[in-house]
Specification:
Cyclic Phosphodiesterase, Chain: A; about 190 residues; globular; 5-stranded antiparallel sheet; alpha+beta; about 40% strand
Length: about 190
């Protein structure tokens, strides 16, 4: 890492202990399939609004202003169902979906994306899909079990959380997994 740079992303964190424990139980049921995967720690569950990569620390204030321009509104987010990227039949990233409130997340993402373009960031390659990642697959062993469980849990009700803020987070990569630190926070109104 170059001096004066941090690895960063913009997120809505999932902190409600009941919802966190439900996501953890879903994650653990996928771990039990025996498929090789890297699980996300309970404390790291979040909706990524935008991954930024390595950024100069001099841009932190500007990025906070861009987040503030999105004027996040307090919104009820309903977490429901599981899915996978790139597809259910070829899963690599496992996630819980957002069935209500995703329109507000999409609006926030759109405003932030425009603001980041003004700051010189490249457009995202992938279309924004609001989700909470709980594991990343690391190989193909027992993939049939993973696909079966994805189909069985496609409509699972996970719970509700409130979108109360949007945060700029630093991601510090360690051998034992990433550590996420809040750098800035814009409170929803």
């Amino acid at each position: 890492m170059a001096i004066g740079r941090i690895r960063a992303f913009i997120s809505v964190d999932i902190e409600d202990p009941v919802v966190v424990s439900r996501i953890a139980r879903i994650r653990d049921s996928f771990i039990a399939t025996g498929a090789p995967m890297k699980p996300v720690e309970d404390k790291n569950f979040h909706v990524t609004i935008r991954f930024l990569g390595e950024i100069p620390v001099t841009l932190i204030d500007d990025i906070e202003r861009v987040i503030a321009e999105s004027k996040p509104r307090r919104t009820r987010l309903v977490l429901e169902g599981v899915g996978a990227f790139p597809s259910l039949s070829r899963p690599r990233v496992l996630w819980v979906g957002i069935s209500k409130g995703s329109d507000e997340l999409e609006r926030i993402h759109s405003v932030i994306e425009r603001g980041l373009r003004r700051l010189g960031f490249r457009a995202e390659r992938e279309e924004f899909v609001a989700h909470v990642t709980f594991a990343r697959l690391k190989g193909g062993r027992n993939i049939d079990r993973v696909v079966k469980l994805l189909n069985e849990l496609s409509g699972v009700e996970v719970g509700e959380v409130e979108l109360s803020s949007v945060r700029l987070k630093q991601s510090i990569l360690t051998r034992s997994g990433p550590i996420y630190k809040t750098i800035r926070e814009v409170v929803a109104t």
